[in-house]
Amino acid sequence: MQISSALVGLLFVVLQVRGLLCLDLARGALMGRISGGEEARENQFPYQVGLSIEEANDLFSWCGGSLISDQYLLTAAHCVEEAVSITFYLGGVQRLSPKQLMRTKNPVVYLHPDWNSQTLDNDIALIRLPEAAVFSSSIQVIRLPGMASRHVSYDYVPATTSGWGRMNDESTFISDKLRYVVQFVESNEDCQYSFANIKPTNICMDTTGGRSTCTGDSGGPLIYHDPFQNADILIGVTSYGKKTGCTKGYPSVFTRVTAYLDWIAEFQEARTDLGLISRMWRLPIGPLHKERATATSAGARIGETTDQIGRHVMRCDWMDGRL
């Protein structure tokens, strides 16, 4: 019997992820983009955090983050490297109607030590919340990948990204409601056709049909649903896309979380004894390019007051990459 090329391709994918993953299309067909895509249901993404970030000169921006303990969240370094205050929105679908709201001046931010704002390498940061998150059906942590899966590529599996970013390239607003899109992870080799600077520390998402992350989504999660554990796993942090726009079909680029498990684990171990991390997901024991990324920030920059965030998106600063 002759095996079709489509079946061979599917078998290759299954073998590549070594039985840890599968094409779990039952969670939904490829849906509308965050740019004008599907509205999230209440409690669908309880780990999603909205960040209203104030920088110097009364400049505000909006980013996303992922709650990984009751005291810490992961986000993009480019979102918070110049933050002088941050307001955290937890547990809400309506952007300005969170279940828990907290604000801090002089936020405690831990940028990755090798973060490079010119190349966007190592675009990842940890933020300590000013008070503990109060867990409920609306506020939960997202599970981190296990150390044993640190070399899994996740190529060609469906993944979900969410945020309050712009709904299309023409919009002057970020979304009032949390939105999400399901697309396939694209291999780094394919992604390099669009971004020559892609590193093994990046993970890319296909945006066929214009379904993509957009300005205001930076720092937010890329999630793989592991059907064996029936659990959502954080595999990426939204980093950048093409300057030409978010609906042009170029891949969305994320920071690959599995590349930073050692850093997160070391950070956790150094602070657990101090009582700073009380409810972080424990990591299972196991073995754990040349074009400048003038990337578009997915963090929507807004030169207005906090209350006006989302009404107008000024100074989007789209470079080839940062969202």
UniProtKB/TrEMBL annotation:
The keyword Protease applies. The keyword Ribosomal protein does not apply. SUPFAM superfamilies: Trypsin-like serine proteases. It comes from the Eukaryota. One of its GO terms (biological process) is proteolysis. Residues 34-269 form the Peptidase S1 domain. PANTHER family: TRYPTASE-RELATED. This is Brachyurin. It comes from Drosophila madeirensis (Fruit fly).
